[in-house]
Each structure stands twice: as C-alpha cells, then as structure tokens.
Amino acid sequence: MQISSQSKLLSCQKDLFSLPSDIHYLNCAYMSPLSKRVEAAGIAGVLRKSNPIDLQPIDFFTEADEVRRLFGTLVNAQAERIAFIPAASYGIATAAKNIHLTRGQNIVMLAEQFPSNVYSWRRFREQGVELKTVLAPTGNQRGEAWNARILEAIDSSTGIVALGHVHWTDGTLFDLEAISKRAREVGAALIIDATQSVGALPFDVATLQPDALIVAGYKTMMGPYSIGCAYYGSRFDKGHPLEENWITRKDSENFSALVDYKDDYSGGMTRYDVGERSNFTLMPMFKAAIEDVLERQPERIQLYCESLTQGLIEALIPLGYQVEAKNYRSRHLFGIRLPKHLDLETLKQRLAQRKIYASVRGTALRVSTNVYNDEADIAALQEVLSNL
Q: Which residues pair with 131 in a beta bridge?
C-alpha cells in the first residue's frame, strides 16, 4: 500500500466526538463512535418524524440521491451504481442471488473470513460448487505469502472470489489490484466486503474493478448501525433484488399513481435498494458521516493512524510481540500477536483495568484507531503491553 507523504497530516479530532475522557477507545473495527455532527443529524431526524406534515414525497428521494453521489465520490464510482443496504450480509446475498455457477466450479474465500461474507457462498455447495478456503501461512508477517496463496488458488474453474479489503481480525492487507486482475483473467466475479476499510483506507472502484463492493456504515464509515452502501458493476445490470419494493420502481415519485403497478425498475442499481431506504433518521446521519470522511480524506486518516501507532509497533517488536510487515497491513487496523509465554485472558484483564477498549479476534489483539485517538491512548496500550 502506497500512501502519499505529500498529504497534509490531520490533527486529533477527539473534541468532535462525545467519548468519555477517561477511556481509551481503540475499537473502531467493532463499532465506531458517532461524531457530534452525525449525532446531531440523528436527533434532528427523530424530531422531524415527530411532525410528519413537513415530510413531502420528494423527501423520500432527494437525500438518498445525494448520499449515493457522496458515496460514489468516496470510492470513485458512478452514483447510479450505488444501492442502499441495511447490512453487509444483505449486500453479499444480493450478489450471490445474481451469480450463477455450475457443478465443478469453485469459490475462493479466506480463512476466518467474516461470517457475513461466508454463509451466502456456502449455499452454493448444494449445486456442487467447491469452496476453496485459502489458509493463512503460519508464523509472523504472513501477508505476502497469504496474498500469493490467494492468487494461486484462483484457477480456470473459479467463478467467484469473495474476500475483504483487509482481514477483519488483524488488518492484513490484500493486494486487490493483483487479485482483481487474476479474477478477470479467469472470468470470476470479484466480491469485496470493505466494511473494515472504506472510509479510512482509500478505495478506487475504477482501478480495482470489483464486481461488487459491500460496505456497512457503522465501522470505518463512522455512521449509524443498519445502513450502508453497495456498488454493483455491469454484471448485475439486469439482476433480481432480494425484495420487491415500491420505491425502486419506475415513476415511484408519483405517489398518486403507485397503484398503477410497474414492472420496470428505476434507473441504475436502485433495484437493489433495501425497503424503507429513505429512513429519515439513519439517512441524514449517514450523509453527515460520509461528509466527515470526505473532508478528512481516507489517505490522511491512514497517515494520522500511522503517526500514532508506528512508535508503538517499533517498541513492541523487541519484546517478542508480532505485527504484520508494513506493506501488508492497514494503518488504521492491525493485529498484535503475543509472545508465547503471555496469556490473552491476562491481557484482557489488564486492558479492562486501564479502561482500554480493543478486541481479541482469533489469536490477535486487534487495535483499530481513527481521528478521535491521541497519543495518550497509544501510550496507555504500550504501557500495558510492556508491563506484561
């Protein structure tokens, strides 16, 4: 991953959030906090529903269209290719419904992939499709070898490659440009769950060319729970949605004529929108969150997180802790593996005593930072790990 050193470094923005001053929240990969701006948008949305006479039919469309445009700007995609989803599983299931494989083909996935990007693909076993799970190599700094294994697993029988942009347990970074090229060579659909990266890590649809990009909004997008976006490429132009709802149909803006049922969908990928996508609380919150991210810029967020954590990583390596090599880990999310003589349960207790919030996922202590973190948060974590 190349991050430009020319980008202006962000300063800490903890004052823009409502986190208690006595905690160290290093757990954005679990659930991001809301900025005060996003919080205010949600409160205004709730109050708006208190007096629904001010809600006009056009309001069901205008804000959603604006959020499509904003998300498209974030990932460099056309707004009409963006659909609204309530969860990553919904976006993945939509893709799975519209890809047809035959007996003898295979689906390439990662070991310990997040379940939402697994269960829909397991259904294909009923059709005689093989699931090829690419195991992570053993030992420290396994990212390079893991990427090589993924490329080797993709063959002429591969119909789908489904993985994350980074691994959700430890931030291992996957070379999507090389993986995308290989998938296109064999005609496989590339389905990316970037819930743990988009918003904090640059993603360019035009460069990486996924067939589907799935992003839940409550982690690195810094938005509310139960709303997100999905990009769907041309492979899905004439597909079937998971549900049939009124607002995705042609001329649905005309409320007086909704009983004049239409078989045609409205333009772009709106056919895949979740029902009640116009949620008048979540949608303005999501809009504010994306505006926040666009103002900060994912590249600058990466640089900020790197400036916070690089010293920590350098201090831990001589103590026997293991961290992925720099070229194969994201800056906002990474895993720390303990020396063999240390116990994860003991670590959890020490973290709780210091009010440090981070997650244990698999065999790693997962540290996930963002612009609300400061040097004191990292110093507290370093102290606990050093004292262990």
A: 107
